[in-house]
Amino acid sequence: MNKADIGLIGIGVMGENLAMNMERNGFTVAVYNRTTEKVARFVEERGKGKNIVGAYSIRELVDVLKKPRKVMLMVKAGEAVDHLIHQLVPYLEKGDIVIDGGNSYFKDTNRRTQSLEEKGILYIGAGISGGEEGALKGPSIMPGGSKEAWQYVAPIFQKIAARVEDGSPCCEWVGPNGAGHFVKMVHNGIEYGDMQLISEAYFILKNILKLNHLEMQKIFIEWNQGELSSYLIEITANILGHLDENTGKPLVEYILDTAHQKGTGQWSSQTALELGVAVPTITEAVFARSLSMIKEERKKASEMFTTPDYSYQGDKEEFIEAVRQALYASKICSYAQGFALLKEASKQYQWELDLGSIALMWREGCIIRARFLERIKEAFDQNPLLSNLLVAPFFKEALEKAQSGWRKVVATAVQMGLPVPGFTSALSYFDSYRLERLPANMIQAQRDYFGAHTYQRIDKPGTYHTDWVGSGQETEI
Fold first, then answer.
1. Torsion of CA 131, 137, 140, 143, to 10 degrees
2. CA distance 334 to 395
3. Which strands sit side by side in the sheet containing 474-476, from one edge to the other?
4. Is the confidence at residue 320, as pLDDT, over 90?
5. Distance between CA atoms of 32 and 391, rounded to whole angstroms?
6. pLDDT band at residue 165, thresholds of 50, 70 and 90?
7. Residue 284 and residue 421: Cα distance in Å, rounded?
């Protein structure tokens, strides 16, 4: 019997589709699932007549693999991963490779990499994006961990990954330890921001301009032909045109307005706080989902408070263009925040992340794939030490053009009492970044007043403290 090239544990929809993708690209795949009935069904149905081998125990899976053995886990992040690793290790040898393809927390991947390397086993934490369709047809894959393992995994991963126009695979080695899962975490944080911003654009078009769903669908289709071109804009247009089979009316209006989350957006915000990086748009997107979940509270509040008496009387076409500008500018800020987080993590964790390469990996296959990611790659190729995407020439010009419409949209939404936390946080981020002087001087004075935390001056070097409630004298510390 010929040995399999790779083993895959966990054959839910993502696992099955990845196995089919690998097999279609010339690899023999061994599959195992805790519920062995799934193995039998998969082998006898979708995998019938294909180079897919069913295994009904972990030992059987390991025995049918070529050395060094490559075992990929497609299970829920957390304890399930640790449990499977514990079961696998007794059957593995030095040099074998364990791959976690789930959405694991990068600090868990750091721990697992170190633990397994101490046993001589190599470990890869691979962020995978693209959903079910991407897993089958070509996802974006972000591997990190034991660098020695990459030479054995690269031929498989780069073969099954999505590709950009020049044929480059949307898969490249990211860095050591949990770098791959960190990059996927930030990808998901940006995804949260993107989805929130698009939902706000829809909300504005619907409630300020009173457009119907066919009119909005046409707008999103047009936007997808230009600089906003992206997977999420494309599917938004499709959603707006989808009718409920029972009522014949737009299905989206029958969907309960409570948005769930699995944790990666929260991890992005929490990690940004730990590293001291401002990601307000990503964080507001997380908070917006949290607020959406208190539906009953919101329903009661809606009966208690009045709505501002304001309606938009301006030109519709001009305002639609302003919404497009606001969405584009806010999107730039959201990506800028994500890449700022990647840059700081690379520095703090000594990962040496290639930000341009990461932008390329997101160009196709993943959920946030968008036309302007090529511009991000170009920006970092031109200046690897770029401080922030906002100051790259292309994005600077785009923000300058969008400013007027962006501000108009935010102001109008505020006057009408519509919540647009994504748009407003992005605009505040932009304004905070572009201003030389912020009100933080008052905060520092307050800190020194009540806690003697000291401050620096703008007119001379040194650290100072003032006796605010006594003599009023300033002392250099």
1. 100
2. 12
3. 455-456, 463-466, 474-476
4. yes
5. 49
6. confident
7. 6
Q: Name residues whose C-beta falls within 8 Å of residue 352's C-beta, 6 or more positions apart in sequence.
A: 175, 346
416: exposed, middle or buried (C-beta count within 10 Å: 0-12, 13-18, 19+)? middle
Residues with Cβ within 8 Å of residue 259, at least 6 apart in sequence: 288, 289, 292, 293
**47 Ramachandran zone, left/alpha/beta (phi>0; psi -120 to 50):** alpha
Could you tell me which residues are beta bridge partners of residue 243? 250
393-416 helix and 179-207 helix, angle to the nearest 10 degrees: 50
Active site residues: 184, 191
Q: Which residue in the block uniquely carries the two structure tokens 């505020």?
A: 414
Q: Return d(Cα 435, Cα 433) in angstroms, integer.
A: 6
In this structure, are residues 137 and 111 in contact, taking their beta carbons and an 8 Å threshold? Answer: no
**What would the pLDDT profile of 400-433 be if each residue is shown by its tens digit?**
999 999 999 999 999 999 999 999 999 999 999 9
Averaged over 134-152, what is the pLDDT?
96
Listed residue (72, 113, 76, 119) closest to 94, CA to CA = 119
How is residue 186 written in tokens? 């930030």
Interhelix angle 280-292/264-275, nearest 10 degrees: 140
* CA dist., res. 112 & res. 114, Å (int): 5
d(Cα 125, Cα 181) in Å, to the nearest integer?
6
**Which amino acid does the sequence have at 208?**
I
- pLDDT of amino acid 1: 62
- Residues 6 or more apart whose CB falls under 8 angstroms from that of 354 comprise 172, 380
Distance CA 264, CA 365 (A): 19
CB neighbourhood size of 410 (10 A): 21
- Rounded Cα–Cα distance for residues 393 and 255 (Å): 41
What pLDDT, in 10s, does the model give residues 438-475? Answer: 999 999 999 999 999 999 999 999 999 999 999 999 99
